[in-house]
Amino acid sequence: MPALLIPILSLVVLWLCLPLEVLAADPRAALLANSCAACHGTDGQSPGAIPPLQGRAPDFIAQRLQEFKTDQRSSTVMNRLAKGYSDAEIALLATHFGTKRGRK
Ligand code: HEC
């Protein structure tokens, strides 16, 4: 049994060394967010007239997407796009873009 103790302890120590960010990040969020880049730019930093997502609060992004999805807010393309995402996916997208802090 003691022979197993060292590998198990090593794994626990390794796990403790992982940055919290790695544990918190859901890989599905980055995959979903890829489809937004065409219009909102890489990491939500829109280069043109389309509103940027980076720097927006997660609650703001989630609320806007829900409003687009339910047609409470009119738009050119976002109504159609938002309807394709479940509430859980919208929450993932909002956290993904809402917690991005990169170049400004
Ligand atoms: C085809 C281009 C296109 C794609 C793809 C796209 N958007 Fe948009 N988005 C827009 C435009 C244009 C607006 C401005 C409202 C409108 O006219 O639809 C907008 C507005 C928004 C807003 C409101 C921003 C504000 O400041 O009011 C949010 C939030 C948003 N998009 C999130 C997303 C997310 C998340 C994705 C990916 C799942 C996405 N968008 C994909 C074009 C796009």
Describe the structure.
- The chain is mainly alpha-helical and 104 residues long.
- The protein has one domain: Cytochrome Bc1 Complex, Chain D, domain 2, CATH 1.10.760.10.
- The chain is 60% helix and 0% strand.
- The protein has helices spanning 2-17, 20-24, 27-34, 37-40, 58-69, 78-82, 87-98.
- The longest helix is centred in the first third of the chain and has 16 residues, at 2-17.
- The radius of gyration is 19 Å and the shape is elongated.
- The mean pLDDT is 86.
- The site of heme C has 17 residues, from helix 4, helix 5 and helix 6.
What number of structural domains do the residues give?
A: 1
Shape: elongated
Number of strands: 0
By CATH reckoning, the class would read: Mainly Alpha
CATH homologous superfamily caption: Cytochrome c-like domain
> Which fold does the CATH topology refer to?
Cytochrome Bc1 Complex, Chain D, domain 2
Overall mean pLDDT stands at: 86
Biggest sheet, open or closed, and with what strands and sense? none
Alpha-carbon distance between the termini?
Answer: 54 Å
Low-confidence stretches: none
Bin the helical content. Answer: 55-70%
**Which range does the strand content fall in?**
under 5%
Number of alpha- plus pi-helical segments: 7
- Radius of gyration, CA atoms, in whole angstroms: 19 Å
Structural class: mainly alpha
Q: Ligands in the structure?
A: heme C
Order of helices and strands: HHHHHHH
CATH architecture descriptor name: Orthogonal Bundle
